[in-house]
Amino acid sequence: MFLEIKDRVLYIKDYWTVENYNKIKKQVKVLSKKSFDYVDASELEKLDFYGAYLINNFFKEYEIRNISPSYEKIISMSKEIPQLSKKKSNYLSLIVESVYKKIGDYFQFISFTGEILVDIFRNIKSIEARTLFKELEEGGIKALGIITILSFLIGVVIAYQSSKMLATFGANIFIVDLVSVSLARELSPLIVGIIMAGRSASSFTAEIGLMKVSEEIDFMKTLGISPYACVVFPKILSLVFWLPILITYSLILGILGAMIVSDFTLGVPPNQFFHRLTEVLDFDHYLAGIVKGPIFGLTVALIGVYEGFKVQQKAESVGFSVTKSVVRTLFAIIVIDALFSVVYRWLGI
Amino acid sequence: MVRYIVEVENLVSKYGEKVVHKGLNLKIKEGELYAIVGGSGAGKSTLLRELLLLRKVDGGKILFKGKDITKLSQKEIDELKKRIGVMFQFSTMLSSLTVGQNIIYVIKKRYNIDDKTAIDMAKIKLNLVGLNPDVFFMYPSELSGGMRKKASLAVALSTDPDILFLDEPTSGLDPISAEDFDTLVRTLVDTTGITIVQITHDLASLLFTDTVAVISEGLIVYEGNPNGLLNVENKWVKNLTSTLRFRRLLNGK
After folding, report:
1. Closest to B137 (Cβ–Cβ): which among A53, A78, A86?
2. Residues A32-84: tens digit of each pLDDT
3. Does domain B4-252 match CATH 3.30.230.10?
4. Percent over 70 (pLDDT), chain B
5. What's B233's DSSP letter?
6. N or C: which end of chain A has fewer CB within 10 A?
């Protein structure tokens, strides 16, 4: 029992602490307020803020006698509950604000790109070959494994999915047209672009973001080293250099996958496949795909780096920025790819 | 009669071959402000991890209110953990919740207390540590270092624990904020009767404490009043007390 009424005096006793809060509250709630004149705390074993909160809520108008000074202090400390003022916002202003912020972000990105380019040209001499080679290894050679497997599988899947339909029409040999042109123009650039968005954009953001958090970027600036020229430029160069090569590589592997499937499911032997391939796959098709490479590379590198530089000086923001950079890069790559389709159509390529 | 909240007896801890504690003994009284000091690598953080049940001891006993915590059942450990508050060195809070939500979450998770009380209690605790109520709606990443320390203290105090562990609470604070923090800790001990154990490098913080324990070479070489440090015959303590910073502090007092 935490309460007892004797001779119109309410004795509060035992432990009025957080463990017993719910039990005490139940007892206090059923108490008839007219049955006592004042509260006596002489039998109280322990009081914490939760007990004091109950006393403040339920015995506000009563005098509390025989209370130790330290308990009295706890009661007075928990008496004051500050009011919270939450900003009320209407939806229209929220929408306008977010749209304004989005547009501002695009302008910021453009000005960042300009700043980088100017800075790189100004400091072109301070670029080190060592970092460039390191980036070339990171950006291209280490990506070969995943591109090999995925491109091969994409070729296999397309050939497999279309084989049934083509066989119904007896158009077995047209598997070559279908696979080669679609891979060369659209799929290989897109696959490589998407892999790079997941691989490189995220790692650029994380790397530069951490350099910002640990003040390494500021340190470089104070030493007179341009972080754009020394850190950013090798990354951009590496991706712009590698993407056309990787797209070509991906195309070859995709066609290889399709060739193997065609042999098994459509009865098109590799020599026939290859012969047809030389007839249908014009250099134009290949060029239409490969042109996207440097542009995708530039997009991936710039967005990854931009999000990295946007990291605040707090470790938590690195995680948010990495997610954002991957999503934005994927978005940008697909939009640019769509633009290419429109332009090609327009030019009649 | 003096009641001890934590008693450590012959504690041994090892990392592989390396022995960190070679039979360490200490006793923390209920309702005192206790400080643990020692050089870097002396095993302070290991001791804290063991007291917080984050690491198993390799030998000896740790008694919490007379019960050996190495021999408790999982249920008893869960109950015990509810009575312990902790503030880590980098004032860790749940980063996906606002400061208010952090406090409310701990209160509701531990004691299943109704919403209104939990919210009021969060406001009371923020007020208690001297923070503006606006902090309630802010995320930990939006706070400055000093505010973050105080917010983290409010989270640690949310369920009125019996004992509170602070790992280097004043590191990274400016001298004025550090002094404020020390005063706040002292006031909490004096008014609420909570036991606070702090690991500290800050010599000025020691002057606020009731008991200082010095760890050196795996043992407690001194446990007592901070003023008594001057008479200790130990190399590390001698080095500490002969530093200019320490001398100046004592003279100032």
Report:
1. A86
2. 777 788 888 888 888 888 888 888 888 878 888 888 888 888 888 888 788 87
3. no
4. 98
5. -
6. N
Our count of domains for chain A comes to 2
Query: Residue A268 carries which DSSP code?
Result: -
**Domain shared by A73 and A140, yes or no:** no
Alpha-carbon gap, residue B152 to B93, rounded angstroms: 6
Residues 77-136 of A with CB under 8 A from B: 77-78, 80-86
**Residue that is written with structure tokens 């005063």 in the block:** B183
Nearest to A82 among B111, B127, B137 (CB): B127
Residue type, B5: I
Dist. CA A190–CA B69, nearest whole Å: 59
Both A16 and A149 in one domain: the answer is: no
Per-residue pLDDT band at A286 (split at 50, 70, 90): very high
Higher pLDDT, B228 or A135: A135
- Mean pLDDT, range A79-103, rounded to an integer: 83
Alpha carbon distance A344, A75 (integer Å): 77
Q: Look up the ipTM and state it.
A: 0.82
Nearest to A251 by CA among A286, A299, A277: A286
| Local structure of residue A83 (DSSP, 8 states) | P
Rounded to a whole number of angstroms, the distance from the CA of A84 to the nearest CA of chain B is: 6
Query: Sign of the CA dihedral A143, A146, A151, A152?
Result: positive
Instruction: Name the residue ranges covered by the structural domains of chain B.
Output: 4-252
Phi, psi torsion values for A293, nearest 5 degrees: -50, -60
Structure tokens at A102: 């989005």
Are B46 and B21 in contact, with CB atoms under 8 Å apart?
yes
Q: What is the pLDDT of residue A125?
A: 81
Whether residue A191 is found in the same domain as residue A275: yes
| Per-residue pLDDT tens digits for A167-225 | 888 888 899 999 999 999 999 999 999 999 999 999 999 999 999 988 898 898 888 88
Judge residue A80's burial from the number of C-beta atoms within 10 Å of its C-beta, 0-12 exposed, 13-18 middle, 19 or more buried.
Answer: exposed
Does some domain include residue A166? Answer: yes
CB-CB under 8 Å, B120 with A21:
no
The torsion angles phi and psi of A86, rounded to 5 degrees, stand at -95, 135
For A214, the domain range is 126-347
**DSSP percent split of chain B into helix, strand, coil, nearest 5:** 45, 25, 30
Nearest to A173 by CA among A50, A259, A257: A259
Give the Cα separation of A112 and A226 in Å (integer).
14
pLDDT band for position B116 (cuts 50, 70, 90):
confident
> A21 touching B, CB under 8 A?
yes
